[in-house]
Write a structure and sequence with these properties.
Elements (H helix, E strand, L loop, with lengths): L4 E6 L2 H11 L3 E9 L5 E8 L6 E6 L3 H6 L8 E6 L3 H10 L9 E3 L2 E7 L5 E6 L13
Parallel strand pairs: 1-4, 5-8
Antiparallel strand pairs: 2-3, 3-4, 6-7, 7-8
Length: 141
């Protein structure tokens, strides 16, 4: 058993695809025409990090209630956690791409971390390994 997809409500498909694929380095797994339950056109768009099993279903907001949830899927809390092997390289790439960060990177017992906003305004943690100290690497969390 594994978690296959998590829905992420977005304003529009293409800017979300651009963000996740071009900025974060996710793969575009699927972008297929589909229809809503009442027959209106939509797209089935799935992105995921390379070699990951769990992906994001980028779901365009449909109606006022969903539009109000764009960027607030987790009520203003960090709700998504992107772990990378090379924190400094990922952070520098994202800064160069104009990603909004909420503060400066810091080191915690579990590694390096900084909060960033996705294309919709949801909060994510960018996580990387802790820098090695004199006693060797920090054990994984």
């Amino acid at each position: 058993m594994h978690l296959d997809l998590v829905s992420l409500i977005v304003d529009d498909y293409d800017p979300a695809i651009d963000f996740f694929v071009d900025v974060l380095g996710f793969e575009l797994v699927e972008d297929s025409p589909s229809t809503t339950n009442d027959g209106r056109p939509k797209r089935w768009v799935v992105v995921r990090p390379p070699d990951a099993r769990t992906g994001l279903l980028l779901a365009r907001a449909d109606g006022d209630e969903q539009a109000a949830a764009v960027g607030r899927q987790t009520a203003g809390r960090v709700g998504f956690f992107l772990r990378v092997d090379d924190f400094d390289a990922a952070h520098a790439r994202m800064v160069a791409a104009g990603v909004a960060f909420l503060g400066e990177p810091r080191t915690e017992p579990y590694g390096r971390v900084v909060v960033f906003l996705d294309v919709a305004g949801n909060r994510w943690d960018l996580l990387g390994p802790a820098p090695e100290d004199a006693d060797g690497p920090t054990p994984p969390r």
